């Protein structure tokens, strides 16, 4: 049995895989897991990984916050409660702002804070056995720290419905509302997910990072001459980078680019 509830694995292709493996508790999040996850994300921020993947072992992707942890907060001081909540919020914020493309691979049930991990990622792929639920209101709680990312993923209207109803969202419905991008047959999930990651690895790592910055700079902004000038400056700056020159040369020479340049 694994002793670590969460691990970071690195492969020789430049992929960092953060694996939830507290299987006996359905990968429910507690202080130990969140602290480790925060450390791993801080490491990824400074590392040269091309992709960062969030995945899980067992039947569940993540059962949300550990209920025993939530219950123990009854005996916390207000300062302790705020510290715990801040750690949870920091994890989602750090994941959302990672410079690398982030991909959530959801193989099973995903609740509350687990959906926070999914919506804080750039891309989410789900098995057809996956299901989602914001169960907080059934417990007298609210999903405060994940709401900013949920609204960005599925919009305010869907957020209102599913946070208030606490109903189960099957994988197909999750795709329809934008909670995940693709739903894949469970027995093909690992193979299809691997093929998707390989597709991303064909792209320029620097360009993918620059795209994330561009989207953050442009999303939900009013179109002004200043914003348009900023986009023009962005492409002008990227064109002269080594990876852009390698990509253009490779295309014209009908060969695969060597992104190591």
Distance between the termini: 42 Å
What can be said about the biggest beta sheet?
6 strands, mixed
Gyration radius from CA atoms, angstroms: 20 Å
How many structural domains in the coordinates?
2
Task: Indicate the low-confidence ranges by residue numbers.
Answer: none
CATH class assignment of the largest domain? Alpha Beta
User: How many individual helices?
Assistant: 10
Using the 3D structure, state the CATH architecture of the largest domain: Alpha-Beta Complex
Q: Per the principal axes of the C-alpha atoms, what is the gross shape?
A: globular
Binned, the helix content reads: 40-55%
Structure description:
- This protein has ten helices and ten strands.
- Helix 4 (113-120) crosses helix 5 (147-165).
- The longest helix has 19 residues, at 78-96.
- It has two domains: 6-201, 2-enoyl-CoA Hydratase, Chain A, domain 1; 205-252.
- The mean pLDDT is 94.
- A six-stranded mixed sheet has the order 1-2-3-5-7-10, sandwiched between helices. A four-stranded mixed sheet has the order 4-6-8-9.
- It is α/β, with parallel strands linked by helices and 261 residues long.
């Amino acid at each position: 049995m694994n002793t670590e509830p969460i691990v970071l694995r690195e492969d020789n292709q430049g992929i960092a895989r953060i694996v939830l493996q507290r299987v006996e508790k359905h990968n429910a999040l507690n202080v130990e897991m969140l602290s480790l996850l925060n450390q791993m994300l801080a490491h990824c921020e400074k590392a040269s990984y091309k992709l960062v993947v969030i995945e899980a072992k067992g039947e569940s992707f993540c059962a949300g916050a550990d209920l025993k942890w939530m219950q123990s907060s009854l005996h916390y001081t207000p300062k302790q409660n705020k510290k715990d909540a801040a750690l949870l919020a920091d994890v989602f914020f750090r994941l959302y702002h990672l410079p690398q493309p982030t991909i959530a691979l959801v193989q099973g049930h995903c609740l509350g804070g687990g959906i926070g991990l999914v919506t804080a990622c750039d891309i989410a792929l789900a098995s057809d056995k996956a299901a989602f639920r914001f169960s907080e209101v059934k417990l007298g709680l609210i999903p405060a720290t994940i709401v900013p990312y949920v609204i960005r993923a599925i919009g305010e209207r869907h957020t209102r419905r599913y946070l208030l109803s606490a109903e189960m969202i099957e994988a197909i419905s999750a795709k329809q509302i934008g909670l995940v991008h693709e739903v894949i047959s469970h027995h093909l999930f690992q193979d299809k997910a691997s093929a998707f990651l390989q597709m991303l690895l064909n792209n320029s790592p620097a360009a993918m990072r620059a795209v994330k910055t561009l989207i953050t700079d442009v999303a939900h902004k009013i179109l002004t001459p200043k914003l348009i000038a900023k986009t023009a400056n962005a492409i002008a700056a990227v064109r002269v980078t080594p990876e852009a020159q390698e990509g253009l040369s490779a295309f014209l020479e009908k060969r695969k680019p060597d992104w190591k340049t």
